[in-house]
Write a structure and sequence with these properties.
There is one protein chain. The protein is mostly beta strands. Helices cover 5% and strands 37% of the residues. It is built from 2 helices and 16 strands. The strands form 4 sheets. Strands 7, 8, 9, 11, 14 and 16 form a 6-stranded antiparallel beta sheet that branches. Strands 10-15-12-13 form a 4-stranded antiparallel beta sheet, with no helix packed on it. A hairpin with a 2-residue loop joins strand 12 and strand 13. The longest helix is centred in the middle third of the chain and has 11 residues. The protein is globular, with a radius of gyration of 22 Å.
Length: 303
Amino acid sequence: AATTDFDLNEEEAAYPRIEIDAFEQYAVHDENTFTYGIIEWHPLRGGVSRKKKTDAPDLSADFHAFAFEFTPDFINFFFDGKLLQTVDVRNAPHNLAHVWLTCIGTRGPEGVEDGEVFFDYLRIYEIDFQTDAYERRRREFVKQFTGASGHVPSAGNDIWVEAENFSDIGDWSVQRDGQALVLRGATDRDTSIAEWRRTASRSVTLPEAGQYRLWVRARDYENLNPGTRTFRVSIDGELSETTFGTHRKEGYSWQDGGIYELPKGEVALDIIDNRYFGRVDKLLLTSDVHYQPSGAGGKDQLP
């Protein structure tokens, strides 16, 4: 795994870096379960990817091969020679890495005794990125990401707004959540905190006056306390009737924020946190009031 904040001096801790986990098994996992993935530690913190495999053969009964392939464009994860997942890392840090083989103790369920891990061999090799064979392989995997946003433009004027591009974010913070950079709200549930601290603000410019529908791409969970990580949106001082982060689907999804009568020119946008893990990826103001965005939506056109 690439180094995290352990034993780093201040200068080293400021380097952009990710951690790559080919294999992790927590005390709460059974012998057929492990996770693998990527964490970004700096300049942002958050998970680039994390998957759980629950149908592995008994991991305590024999040796198994856990591997990853790290390239400028993608990381492939393998288990016993079979591809598990391809992850787009074109917008993630690419840093020199330390390799750790370790058994890190975690607090497990009562009655679970200390575990141990055995390593048979470690193989590390450098990929020659200048070969035709690698270029064919690169194209094979990168094509999975092409057009992956699922974006189809509307018939009107679309103003896409990336949450991480808000100019004044109060107590919100910019975080990575998978392939998205998002705004993450506070976690203390204290809505008595001054509203300016709970508010992220910026303005956008509308090309013409008229009716605009608001759409917001927010995070929620299907089974893990759904509908609790919430926030509101205000447009030109008018607070949305919709509370966002309540779609009860796993991951990010678009929610309809209603129709607003808006002037031509500069319009103020505010995202107001309810202070419990709220996360917002993107907003859309569209003059096509019958349009519904899909996938990750369009790109933010910053002034």
